[in-house]
Amino acid sequence: MSDKNVIPYKIYLEESEMPESWYNVRADMKNKPAPLLNPGTREPMTAEELSGVFCEELVAQELDNEHPYIAIPQEIRDFYKMYRPSPLVRAYCLEERLQTPAKIYYKFEGNNTSGSHKLNSAIAQAYYAKKQGLKGVTTETGAGQWGTALSMACSYFELDCKVYMVKVSYEQKPFRREVMRTYGASVTPSPSMTTEIGKKILAEHPGTTGSLGCAISEAVEVAVTNPGYRYVLGSVLNQVLLHQSVIGLETKAALDKYNIKPDLIIGCAGGGSNLGGLIAPFVGEKLRGEADYQIIAVEPASCPSFTRGTYAYDFCDTGMICPLAKMYTLGSSYIPAPNHAGGLRYHGMSPVLSQLYDDGLMEARSVRQTDVFEAAEQFARVEGILPAPESSHAIRVAIDEALKCKETGEEKTIVFGLTGTGYFDLVAYEKFHNGEMENYIPTDEEIAESIAKLPKMD
Ligand SMILES: *Cc1c(COP(=O)(O)O)cnc(C)c1O
Questions:
Q1: How far from 167 is each of 11, 17, 186, 198, 425, CA to CA, in Å?
Q2: CATH classification of 3-20+83-115+245-451 is 1.10.10.60, yes or no?
Q3: pLDDT at 1
Q4: Ligand 1 centre from 5 Cα, in Å?
Q5: For the chain, N or C: smaller number of CB within 10 Å?
């Protein structure tokens, strides 16, 4: 009997089957992720120090290496119900097109206006800010997905939202900007004259089009100098991976319904939040010795933190004002070449995933941009969804693995994270179609140069 008679194209969960708690994988890790360090004293950041910048409950979640389950407040679960559970789709059409014996599933997180998984954490962070009685939050956005998700979450909880958007994206992605303004956020191109650091950068580099690191510095400055404001971040941090575990918990619940056990789990990795969330419950089983899975993180060849980076303490921002995090990094002075998967252009990687990778619990692969868009197009043409360039990194490796199965005849079950849609990335698709897309790959010397500037630890 064909699988089609047994397993539907889309596996949905009932509302009542949605997770009631997030899963904190750190509780099951023998080697805990290294703590954030104060950039001045090089001592672990205390809750008190962190709470000057972040909301109190989020600080508690950031530092919690102990509790495996943290209840999702009812208000957040209610919001989740508007766009979750997200479907787990069996890619029957892709399998057929590839003529592979592999069974391919993807968890689709693009079914909300932000077009990505980022809303899962944005709504949680906005909730805790509101609960603390804050007036608003500040953040930076590069490609714009995080800023969009956060403005949606803030408008829901009636919080003010100040977004510092890298100037080049502000100018090149006017539609993203308008979505944020529709949700009531103020969007400022960074660097700007509204902050001391912005003025300083503009004085030193007149006409600069900005960077993520600079936008972070501006957003943090505004948060710490305005009473009633805190700074929020859309990836990398432990708390963000915790919120994103809703992806993995739903995936596991859907697979369990049909007794499906994945062999291979694949996700794209920028700062690591979607992948960390998707794999969390599976890694938990691995850590507890209950099951085994092959896990692959996929990153762009132009920004290869895992595959060519160094595991060391580094600054999280180029302005060097944020805490130090121990992570796989290319160095905070590494400036990734223009790359159309904007959400994957971060020099470092989540400390949780960095530790899991260092312990051999997961693998990583880097892929070239044109190969990614080829996979994106192949996927779009049979599965109907126009994928985000970021997500398409995972599609690339899922297809590669399915083609390997075709050669060996193995019937592997592959699950990958389809993090979002690519409607705001059509300039990138246009470049690909016109044959104008470049595959920039840094030289060893370039990487060594920024690694040499890592903070000296003694
Ligand atoms: C931001 C983003 C990513 C990468 O971020 P992670 O924190 O690594 O998950 C991936 N896909 C989409 C669609 C994004 O918006």
A1: 41, 43, 14, 12, 17
A2: no
A3: 65
A4: 34
A5: C
